[in-house]
Amino acid sequence: MIPEIGHLALIAALFVALAQGVLALAGAARANLTWIAFARPAARTQFLLVIVGFTALTWAFVAKDYSVAYVAQNSNSQLPLGYRMAAVWGGHEGSLLLWLLMQTGWAYAVSRLSKQLPDAMVARVLGVLGLVTAGFLLFVLLTSNPFERLFPVPQDGWDLNPLLQDIGLIFHPPLLYMGYVGFSVAFAFAIAALLAGQLDSTWARWSRPWATAAWAFLTVGIALGSWWAYYELGWGGWWFWDPVENSSFIPWLVGTALIHSLAVTEKRASFKNWTVLLSIGAFSCSLLGAFLVRSGVLTSVHAFATDPRRGLFILILLTVIVGTSLALFAWRAPKVGMGGRFDTVSRESLLLANNVLLVVTAGAVALGTLYPLLIDALGLGKLSVGPPYFNAVFVPLMIPALLLIAVGPVANWKAAQFGAIFRQLRVPMIAAPVVGLTAPFVLGHWSGSAALGLMLATWIAVSVGTGIFGRMRATRGGLRAQPRSWLGMHMAHLGIAVFVTGVTIVSGYETERDVRLAQGESVSIGGYNLTLVGVRSARGPNYVTQIGDIELSRDGKVLRRLHPEKRNYPASQMPMTEVAIDANGLRHVYAALGEPLGEGVWSVRVYHKPFVDWIWIGCILMALGGGLAISDRRYRLKPRRQHAAQPLPEATS
């Protein structure tokens, strides 16, 4: 009965979403105050109904209701309670329900946190979000119903994929979806502004915190997915250029361009057309990622669905959203105007160059991801595009983008002088080559790629430090006296420097060994000794395991015991490797237990990975910078009358 309640709640949510979309947009167009006022309560009702549906599915998992097909396919009586609850979004149908929960949650947040905005603008934004949500509700109800019954009812479930039986499943998908779906708010603001003919700095200020919040969530989601793959798959890699990884990275790149473009539109009323296109592009890329993961066109440890009907539906949804958005843009764009003008050397021009590099990079990643799929679909054979291609196109595009990170913040708006920029960047210009050319020798051996990476990281980090120090000296105030958006920008840029440092050092100086070890034998790596003390058998809640006991020592001193595992899940008959990692912030010693080779001998894979933690620390700093930026007080104040949106000439009639 409870699953049926959840199903009915989703059906009711569909009707509310359609009413919200149609009445809110029509009310804003006709200045009908009753219909405009309907938008906020409709968004809240829709969120409540989806919560009911989500709770019903969660109850089915907790209660082990195997009459629900989705529960039977993704759960088992032996599965621990925490994983049973996280299994709600462990498969295709539940992940779409999670998407809907996030989608309606963002709309609810807009209805609550946009009280200072004009009611007509909020109605347009919520109307657009309502129509988007209606599309996904149709997708769920017609092709991906999580409440479908199964007869006859099995005695037990088939179990959750062992790869997903990890704490990463609890946090990674929700955070990733918060980023994906969050860009729908920036998209809705852009469409609402186009409909109203109000593309100006006020619109950009309204949209900017929502776009930044989505970007911050997506940053954390991608970082957590990288960490999850690093320790769960047992391969020791933190990024594989997997197509599904790329499907989250592409909207991140476009979203990064968007938040910088919004800054220019807010400050100088420039880039208006470009900012609208990026708003459409960021959400469209999120939908493209959803298509890749759920259409069945990809084979990946991350992919969910294999039903082509689902892929066709979401492809149609993507086409409708992108097509209507671009048609509206083509209609309105000629009326927008150029906005504030700027010289060739200015902060605007530097940010534009940054945007172009990010979008071209996103296009290059998309090409490498989609081209093999297109070749396969046309029957022209199989083609594999791997890390060599992505590294070859990504790195050259990112080098100038990283250089611009230091230059942009010190350049003046509208017009800048090379001499003034040079004076403010003298210290980074000296520090970057000194560190870049000498640090590789300290790390063990000199490498051109390591020197370049460390030079770029130092260039960014020192420019952040000198920028903060210079502003504090000029304003005679401490950090608390500075605008949070400005501090957030520098924190995010510092995160990029930390990230680049981690990537550079781990890529150039990691070591790996695959060895055969018997009890009492040792292997040396990175100045550490790892001795196999033994392997014992044990049972978990829903698996049996072989647990290694490896002694980690250095210079004869025992540091700790590592316990990698080789698990087997009887319900699914799948083996899994659980690695053991010793970390101290500057390096990882990573051990993975392989296969038994007979007579007490085991294959063991060990890694020494210097500074690998800095990759994820850098991502966290980026996301925290975004969070700090959106807490700026100007996003919490009611806009002044003189900044009210000015409609396009056509909209005044």
From TrEMBL:
A Pfam family the protein falls into: CcmF_C
Gene Ontology CC: plasma membrane
Alphabetized GO MF terms: heme binding; heme transmembrane transporter activity; lyase activity
Subcellular location: Cell inner membrane
Gene Ontology BP terms: cytochrome complex assembly
Keyword Ion transport among record annotations: no
Record key words, sorted: Cell inner membrane, Cell membrane, Cytochrome c-type biogenesis, Lyase, Membrane, Transmembrane, Transmembrane helix
Domain Cytochrome c assembly protein: 89-295
Coiled coil regions, renumbered to chain: none
Record membrane topology: Multi-pass membrane protein
The Cytochrome c-type biogenesis protein CcmF C-terminal domain, residue ranges: 315-633
The keyword Cell membrane is assigned to this record: yes
Superkingdom of this protein's organism: Bacteria
Annotated TM spans: 6-26, 47-66, 86-109, 121-142, 177-197, 209-229, 249-265, 274-292, 312-331, 352-373, 393-413, 425-443, 449-470, 491-509, 614-631
Function: Required for the biogenesis of c-type cytochromes. Possible subunit of a heme lyase.
Protein family per UniProt: Belongs to the CcmF/CycK/Ccl1/NrfE/CcsA family.
Protein name listed in UniProt: Heme lyase CcmF/NrfE family subunit
Lineage: Bacteria, Pseudomonadati, Pseudomonadota, Betaproteobacteria, Burkholderiales
